[in-house]
Amino acid sequence: RMEEALMKTCIxxxxxxxxxxxxxxxxxxxxxxxxxxxxxxxxCGRPVTWSVHAIxxxxxxxxxxxxxxxxxxxxxxxxxKVLSEQTVDDFAMFARNVWHVEEEDSYKAAEEGIRExxxxxxxxxxxxxxxxxxxxxRYFQNMAEKAMxxxxxxxxxxxxxxxxxxxxxxx
Length: 171
Hints:
Blueprint lengths: L1 H18 L4 H15 L12 H12 L4 H16 L5 H12 L6 H17 L17 H8 L12 H11 L1
Helix pairs in contact: 1-2, 1-5, 3-4, 3-7, 4-6, 4-8, 5-6, 7-8
């Protein structure tokens, strides 16, 4: 629930800060939220192994893409890739608790939540890697290989081909 609260804070204050960069309350709340999101407090009691972070780190290493922009482009594609019987309840809970999706069917709710997240990102951020400044796909294979050591014991196991496919779908 704490992760959901942090997301809802970003959803509330992000647009305010974008419209009015001098809005101290919005910026302070986003900074406070960022601090809680990165300080490992959310890991207490359970491992957090979101593979999309390791996949994005390679993107930032090879191309001039900031971590946040890379995550905004990759995350919806990653969520769709890993949506399955194993993950559907988590993603449906995210959709219902963060985006107030009322759909009873868990798969439909999860898909709606992914669309809501994607729409939120698209207001200010690129939708594709190409829009983010990635001009070619020549490093995708190398990036996937370098990401693999960081993808052990993650939320959903991914192969090198899965990672390449994720980059390609995001391109």
